[in-house]
Amino acid sequence: MGLYTIMCVFLFVSVAIISISGYDIDTDDLPTPVDGLSWTFYNETCPNLESILNATLGPALDEDITQAAGLLRLHFHDCFVQGCDGSVLLTGTTTDPGEQDAPPNLTLRARALELINEIKAAVEANCSGVVSCADILTLAARDSVAKAGGPDYPVPLGRRDSLDYANESTVLSNIPAPTSNLSQLTVSFDNKGLNLTDLVALSGAHTIGIAHCSSFDNRLYNLSTGQTIVDPTLDVSFASSLYSICPVVNDTVNSTNNDLITPNVFDNNYYLNLQNNETLFTSDQSLYSDSADTEDTVDSFASNQTVFFENFILGILKMGQLDVLTGSEGEIRTNCSIANTDSSYYQQIIESIVGPEEQSQSSLST
């Protein structure tokens, strides 16, 4: 694939070119924003949104770049369950568990959730009641990818926040399990309007982040008996190293990096690992073992990082617009963790960042 240009329209309908690792991409090749979203949504209502985001998230990722994977995963787990509506951010209760309490979400990073609330507090201090948590999560995921060395890309904005979260059965039926085979993954992504190329490209997010032993020990042990086995699609030497990390079956504590070579760099090394049978999840390796179609795509991405980045952008922009709430739907949460019923706790968070006097002055000016 040759080089091409990505353009996006910014304030005053000026055109900006976003350079991605030495190349540019054209807006004509990007998915058209769904109704209600636009590339310039907050230009007038919160023109400093990008700088506010960077001032909060930038230092946090400088301090701990591993949170980039946590934020990107949070975005995926939000969008795949009742759309990109910030529902995964809502905290459940003992009697009414939230999405975070469902098994696929038990290992979501607590710090990633905290960062979204910290960004929201900073945004509220400047643009009260304007920017949704769903949009903040989308932007945080985008910046996390770029901060980790991946492509920088524009995102259409204008999402609204859900009023409630999905139940456990809905989460389980929508988040693909790490033990999924290619057929199961294909159905899951097809249900979201995402094709095989999107599947392979978005799976490349596993170039960063960690995995707990319990999510891939089905390739190391007979889960019923606990006896050692070796998945035939798992490199023997690599498997040996995994046994030292995961010495017992059903280990929910120990973890390892998805990519042992460049664990915190968003690159195409994930696809090289697939070629070498050195990925962790059944769902990952199935991309290279179950179909010639996805195998060819893996080979393409492994040999050309630019091609991977281009397709990742297309895939994540499509995913980021799944079943969004817009217009008068949903709400703009004051606190990303709770619906707009009690903002007293959240007010304390805002004041801890900007101080009560500055918050009062900011509210008067917006």
List the helices and strands and how they pair.
Blueprint (H helix, E strand, L loop, with lengths): L6 E3 L5 E3 L1 E2 L2 E2 L24 H15 L3 H13 L30 H15 L8 H15 L20 H7 L7 H9 L5 H8 L6 E3 L23 H10 L9 E3 L11 H7 L6 H8 L2 H12 L1 H15 L24 H11 L1 H10 L1
Antiparallel strand pairs: 1-2, 3-4, 5-6
Can you walk through the features of this model?
The chain is mainly alpha-helical. The chain folds into two domains: 47-171 and 324-365, Peroxidase, domain 1 (Orthogonal Bundle); 176-319, Peroxidase, domain 2 (Orthogonal Bundle). It is built from 14 helices and six strands. It has helices spanning 49-63, 67-79, 110-124, 133-147, 168-174, 182-190, 196-203, 236-245, 269-275, 282-289, 292-303, 305-319, 344-354, 356-365, and strands spanning 7-9, 15-17, 19-20, 23-24, 210-212, 255-257. The protein has a two-stranded antiparallel ribbon. It has a two-stranded antiparallel sheet with strand order 3-4. A two-stranded antiparallel ribbon has the order 5-6. The chain starts with 6 loop residues before the first strand and ends with a helix.
